[in-house]
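Revision sheet: structure tokens.
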Amino acid sequence: MVRYVDDFESVLSDHELRVPIPDPFVAGRDLVAPGGRALRYVSRLDQLIAEGDELWIVRHRLADGWAHGRGLLDDWLGISQAWAAEICHPQLRIAGNIYNELRVDEVPPDEPAAIPDELDRRNMTGARHVNRRRDYLPERRAVPRGASAGFG
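Predicted:
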């Protein structure tokens, strides 16, 4: 009988994001360089996974020790990747980030870890899984048909 420890599906792996950067002063316009060339936010997702109906960005990191909770909350790279993923792929709604840390400061154990008999059913409330808010983008308002969206 095959047992799986992780209960998720991989959606994207090593995926490049290239999105325009909106102009903070002029709604509906993107930032451009002095020569008129469009400025883009470019990043690479390590992995995007689906757990049930939620999508999570996974970041793989080598670490000398576990990251502190506040550092995970203030991870602007993770926040910007979630924003860019939703701009690049409007059909996606990102729930948050998961950090997969491999510690390089520890000596590996002599025996491999045993796989539990039951699946790991985390309730996502622990310190290793931080979700400060449900959505990184402001709420989108529908524009009635025929009405102007206010971008001119």
